[in-house]
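Exercise: predict the structure of this protein bound to adenosine-2'-5'-diphosphate.
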Amino acid sequence: MPDASAAKKTLPDAQTVTTVRHWTDSLFSFRVSRPASLRFRSGEFVMIGLPGDNGKPILRAYSIASPNWDDELEFYSIKVPDGPLTSRLQHIRPGDEIIMRPKPVGTLVLDALLPGRRLWFLATGTGIAPFASLMRDPETFERYDQVVMMHTCRTAEELTYGRELVENLAHDPLLGELYGADFAKRLLYYPTTTREESPLMGRITDNLVSGKVNADLNLPPISAETDRAMICGSLAFNQDVKKVLEDFGLREGANSEPREFVVEKAFVGDGI
Ligand code: FAD
Ligand code: A2P
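Solution:
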């Protein structure tokens, strides 16, 4: 009989799972070891996966949810019931190995935006993952006076990962020490639900267009002079938010051409 532990060590680009946390029936997060040689910019994604039955790995794009100074890598994941990867990935436990291709890429990076005063993170569902990285990176707060994290999900339970992360940031060893009591004014959190009653409700698009979020947070209207944004959600969400920001006069940028906002899909939808 082949030795299972010996087989594990033959995985190419293997990383060891250190912690797993299940947030809802359909959402979980986990942390893995970080290869010493891996350098990435907060907000980027990598390909991760598990070996397939035919020996070919099942790999999918995943935003790195941890900041670039962290010793480990964190990921925040959906559980798609019949999903080739996540139907299995959701069962990982500490000590298991996953595959990670060490080639980080992505558009949700600070370098793809022009300097500004206020940075908006606009996410639905697991689209908060790249911002979980950027919110924990001191460079974000070195570049911008204020960061506004808008996260929308159908239910309040689905907001828990982001809510806990934001609450813990005030006590973060790095950011807490850097910004102290001022931190609550630097990071503004605006979580909303759309299909369950909660203190704040509504789609991100509606709350931007109506100006409700600005009124609630006591912020001036969005303008191309002061405001920058990063968008991460479904294709339809991204398209709709893009239109809203363009109506405010902001233009889409890229690594090669920094402008006022950048966009990345949180997943590739059915048939797209
Ligand atoms: P798949 O066959 O890949 O997907 C099946 C269907 O499930 C899709 O057609 C879609 O309708 C739906 N779906 C897939 N992913 C999601 C999702 N995240 N939210 C809602 N519906 C979804 N997924 C994460 O969970 N966390 C991440 O940080 C993440 N980052 C990504 C970054 C990029 C740039 C891209 C393109 C995708 C990212 N994804 C992320 C999606 C991820 O690559 C996989 O699609 C997901 O893990 C499901 O894999 P699967 O093989 O189980 O199912
Ligand atoms: P809604 O409940 O009004 O559809 P989903 O679970 O379908 O991926 O959606 C996640 C969250 O994103 C939901 O709160 C949903 O609101 C919202 N959403 C979905 N599509 C859009 C869109 N095109 N513009 C703005 N918000 C959207």
